[in-house]
Amino acid sequence: MTEAKYKKIEAILKQRIIDQTYPLNSLLPKEIELAAEFNTSRPTINHAIHNLVQQGFLEQRKRLGTIVKRNKIAQEFTHVIQSYNQEMNDKGLKARTKVISFDKINPTSEIQNALNLYPSDSVFKLVRLRYVDTTPIVKVTTYIPAKLVPELDKIDFSQVSLYDELRKRNLPVTHVTRKLEVKQASSTISKTLKIKENDPVFYFHSYGYAKRDQKIEYSIATYRGDLNSFIIDLNLN
């Protein structure tokens, strides 16, 4: 049994759980069936299944079999400032970003208030869809004052972290405030995130500050409710 073999099978089984090829609460195919499908031994299959049980994607029950569970991604950005890619990589997940659009626009009154801008100012509007493997997890629309970051639209943010780019420009995000709402998915967001219309979604407004409390970022993020949970870390002063 090689590590590459069981790891590859583990990744395939995990993806089938995430994209619901194996539906929630369904029985996983028997080890002998999976061994035949992947042309490998039962110990190799058993090793892959054991790892997924440890990660919370599967549950083994006596006299019944192996049950598919939905292991939500524990998002920690509520108390940690880091990029999406870094957070997913730290969890052993494969992150990917698709840039839907990237334009320079005149700010609406909402954006003006969020970033302390004048109507004559311009902002960059960056719309991204973030994935784990091939599954869309969150749609993020970000607004950044154009006067603070000239030529930002020349950067390919499917490959580059926005926070890393701001840090390079001596504008690191040092403080973030977020407002959370739970909403029902619209027809547009349901298509984008591949969920059903009216499914629950987490809706975050985020305000990012650079040094001296300079407003540098205003983002609206819509997270799938079925695949995400959020860690809140509080301390008594």
TrEMBL record:
It comes from the Bacteria. CDD domains: WHTH_GntR. Transmembrane segments: none annotated. GO terms for molecular function: DNA binding; DNA-binding transcription factor activity. InterPro entries: Bact_HTH_transcr_reg, Chorismate_lyase_/UTRA_dom_sf, Tscrpt_reg_HTH_GntR, UTRA, WH-like_DNA-bd_sf, WH_DNA-bd_sf. One of its GO terms (biological process) is negative regulation of DNA-templated transcription. Keywords: DNA-binding, Transcription, Transcription regulation. Residues 3-71 form the HTH gntR-type domain. It holds the Pfam family UTRA. SUPFAM superfamilies: Chorismate lyase-like (SSF64288), Winged helix' DNA-binding domain (SSF46785). This is HTH gntR-type domain-containing protein. The lineage of its organism: Bacteria, Bacillati, Bacillota, Bacilli, Lactobacillales.
